[in-house]
Write a sequence for this structure.
């Protein structure tokens, strides 16, 4: 994913969707933050902020926070909308080898027992001549991972009832015979493995264990991030 970004300095994030920054000319302005999470470790005062610009005249805030460059020189993609885009790109270009052999890819498809939308649905035709078990549908829930504590990456960074719901949906999908995948998109260059954040959301950690026991697959892919480009290209461990 090619980027065209400008650099600024973070003053503070507030009201979840807003942050104040200092531009390179010394002036201050407010930008939009496309992230509903706690953004722990991603929004420290004086971090470098890399932002995109929209020419949509209807937008109150034309600047969007895309990347944080921390004082430890880690790059973090804080725009959570990018996770699904990067996952789709990595599936289509063959990087995620575990998610190949499909005939059709759809986004944001309604499914499940709790009125959900799956991030990515892969449809494939059934090969009746194959001796291996075939799935005609693969349901993929994508989660953005940006929390680094010590040397360990964690998800989630706050209690997520929505994420808990998604895990229950995936468990039901797996039990009903379709393929269910939880795909962690690691958008922090300092993270080299991911764990369920039991110390933050014990229920989510419990549901992940139930999901694994029910046949839900967990895949973790890390992004290479620069102010010019982001690409999901390295499989790392889920512990």
């Amino acid at each position: 994913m090619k980027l065209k970004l400008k650099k600024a300095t973070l003053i503070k994030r507030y009201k979840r969707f807003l942050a104040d920054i200092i531009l390179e000319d010394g002036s201050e302005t407010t930008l939009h933050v496309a992230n509903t999470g706690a953004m722990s470790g991603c929004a420290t005062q004086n971090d470098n902020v890399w932002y995109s610009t929209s020419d949509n005249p209807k937008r109150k805030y034309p600047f969007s926070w895309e990347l944080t460059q921390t004082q430890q020189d880690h790059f973090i993609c804080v725009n959570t909308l990018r996770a699904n885009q990067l996952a789709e790109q990595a599936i289509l270009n063959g990087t995620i080898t575990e998610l190949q052999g499909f005939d059709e890819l759809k986004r944001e498809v309604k499914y499940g027992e709790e009125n959900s939308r799956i991030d990515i649905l892969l449809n494939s035709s059934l090969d009746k001549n194959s001796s291996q078990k075939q799935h005609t549908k693969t349901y993929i829930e994508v989660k953005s991972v940006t929390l680094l504590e010590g040397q360990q990456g964690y998800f989630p960074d706050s209690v997520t009832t929505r994420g808990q719901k998604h895990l229950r949906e995936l468990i039901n999908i797996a039990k009903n015979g379709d393929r269910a995948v939880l795909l962690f998109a690691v958008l922090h260059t300092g993270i080299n493995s991911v764990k369920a954040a039991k110390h933050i959301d014990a229920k989510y950690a419990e549901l992940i264990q139930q999901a694994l026991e029910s046949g839900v697959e967990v895949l973790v892919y890390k992004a290479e991030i620069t102010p010019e480009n982001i690409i999901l290209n390295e499989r790392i461990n889920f512990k």
Q: What stands out?
A: Residues 12 and 165 are 31 Å apart (CA to CA). The longest strand covers residues 6-14.
